[in-house]
Design a protein that fits this description.
Layout lengths: L2 H4 L5 E2 L2 E5 L2 E5 L5 E3 L4 E4 L6 H6 L9 H16 L3 E4 L9 H4 L2 H11 L3 E5 L14 E3 L1 E4 L2 E4 L9 E3 L4 E6 L4 E9 L3 E3 L10 E2 L16 E5 L4 E4 L11
Parallel strand pairs: 5-6, 6-7, 7-8, 10-11, 11-14, 12-15
Antiparallel strand pairs: 1-17, 2-3, 3-4, 4-5, 9-10, 12-13, 13-14, 13-16, 16-17
Length: 242
Amino acid sequence: MALAETIQDEAPLGSVSFTLMGQSFMALPEGVLYWPDETTLIVADLHLEKGSSFARKGIFLPPYDSRATLGRLERLITSLQPARIIALGDSFHDIAAANRLGADECTVINRLQQGRDWVWVSGNHDPYPPDALGGRACDELSIGPITFRHEPIQGAKGEIAGHLHPCSKVRGRARSVRRPCFIEDGTRAILPAFGELTGGLNIRNDAFSGLFEQPDTICIHMLGDRQIYSVSPSNCRPDRRG
């Protein structure tokens, strides 16, 4: 059953525009945010080389996650041609992940950086983004009224962050659907994880408590296969326990 049949009374959109501190952003169904006035593409939680990180612990996942993640990112960059890329931390799954990237993956990253301002925001998995891959690293970045950081801070305004891998779950007539989502309230936004093997945390989890001061202003934008679906928080359900 298509997502549109499950989410009742919600109009599907290819992308969703919203305003954050007076700035207009576009949430795209691929799970990235685009800032047209700054020709800037924002992506969170690539978690490159997660597969190889798990393999070192004896947990074997498909070893092609970095290639798949970068392939999807390259298609977006080719289409949008942004002047700036902001990677919101946890771009690498651990501090040694960049050293495990294959030559082809390094070539893709270097190619995508050409002629662009590429910013690696540090995350809890990658507090020291690698110098060898180019771009510039920072703990957070402010452009006008917007601050980009990895982990959302309680009470922050004008913040765009990642880290929490937000997902929302809605129940329709026949079944429930759980998808990554953007969550925003006009003053701050949290992006879904972009990486191929990244999971998601239900927005009803306590980790989101208190981040949005006025719950009635929250908007949820769920990722569909080709479209964004904006849903009311009141329609979002917690995950079943037990």
